[in-house]
Amino acid sequence: MSSGHSRDLSPIFEPKSIAVIGASNNPTKWGWIIPSNILSNGYVGKIYPVNPKGEEILGLKSYPSLLNVPEDVDLAIIVRPAPSVPQHLEECVEKGVKAAIVISGGFRETGEEGERLEREAVRIARRGGVLLVGPNTMGVWSSTVSLSALMPPVIPRSGAVALISQSGNIGTNALAFGSERGIGFSKFVSSGNEADIATEEYLDYFARDPQTRVILAYIEGLRDGRRFIEVAKRVTKKKPIIIYKAGRTSEGAKAARSHSGALSGSNRIYDAAFKQCGVLKASTVNELLDLAAAFLLLPLPRGKRVGILTWGGGYGVVATDACVEVGLEVPTLPVETIRELDEYLPPYWSRGNPVDLVGTFDRSIQPKCLEALVRAENIDSVIASGLIVGRESFGAALTNSQRSDKLGERVADDWLLTADRKNMDTMAELIERYGKPIVAVTLTTRAQLTREAFERKVAAYSSLEGAANVLVKMLEYANFLRCRGAET
Fold this sequence. Notes:
Elements: H1 10-13, E1 17-21, H2 30-40, E2 46-50, E3 75-78, H3 85-95, E4 99-102, H4 112-127, E5 131-133, E6 139-142, E7 147-150, E8 158-165, H5 168-180, E9 185-190, H6 199-208, E10 214-219, H7 225-235, E11 241-245, H8 250-259, H9 267-277, E12 280-281, H10 285-297, E13 306-310, H11 313-325, H12 335-342, E14 355-356, H13 366-375, E15 381-385, H14 391-400, H15 405-434, E16 438-441, H16 447-455, E17 460-461, H17 464-484
Parallel strand pairs: 1-2, 1-3, 3-4, 4-5, 8-9, 8-10, 10-11, 11-12, 13-14, 13-15, 15-16, 16-17
Antiparallel strand pairs: 6-7, 6-9
């Protein structure tokens, strides 16, 4: 919508009843896959398959037409070819359906005839007060009612992140990758062509959603930039919005028009608009999830001064470069902090920031050194590299060096797994005590370890550059809130 009014989208995300128009008994068709996903995820509302043959589908009685369904229907999911969609929407209007998700492609993204069909679909839906998701969408997810009305068989974790994606594939992959890392989602919409409901209206809804704390979006273009800025300015005072903007090049913009029919516009204009309204721009799709984890787990930094703790000198150099290159500072440590670290580290340690643990195998000193660094008065945040190692990094070597496999396994568990978990818990406790963000950098890329860290309330990443990017963007948001007089 282009007006200043945002509608109540709860019939999309909290329906009490769903009709699947185009339901099928063929397991290769979306008309079978989507209701199967809805059922397997535990949706407790009523489901009405609609199929001209009136046959039983997935153990449910089906109806030859939506108008034959005897009960009220909140949400219709239309899995039919584009030319038939206007007629099905007419039936939705007659039935009093509150919202419709049009899975089908073949609309504005395909050319003039598709654009005509899309305009007709929107005209019918708005005339009848039917909220229209899509078309050209992969569906929605809502943890509120355990609804997985999605094309792919993805069942995300429940959590506090809402995601809007104009690409169904990228959106559903982000759900899967996020869940692997321990990140849970409150709501998801594959917004598709956004013929009726645009990104800014979803933003407005998620801002009011009590389950949502962080909002992510993948966009290829916006229809109403003025409306987006108006909404985003209001939302970012309450919740962070993190966006990955695709179609930044002329070639990418052309691809966006054929994919979702989006109007991409100048990348510089988008950058300026995002900055004006406090939206954070992710530089990669994966960084969307990096930032989501940070905002869920960490307090905002009070300033740009970073303390760095590493297991080796080279990592300290890389971490320093990464911080300085994005605009952070790596300050000299106070004398009292140096003296405290002298008590734990060998005489040949670096005696500065970064704090180099000189590869010591005594992992009991790591929590002590970390706390000394976090407590330093001129440190606003900490990057801790090497405190989470990962059993696979050294486990095999430790096992092979022992007299028996059983002994080696025990040494690996004690030295790696137990110490990793103790360090995770220490980081979470220090974050809570001192109110400063601590970003962990692992020595492994395994999602399992990152997930365990997240579950223990630690934001862990596999690269120093990623850690620095997270901190500088959290600082950007903190500065935005301070300038606007909002709570940090």
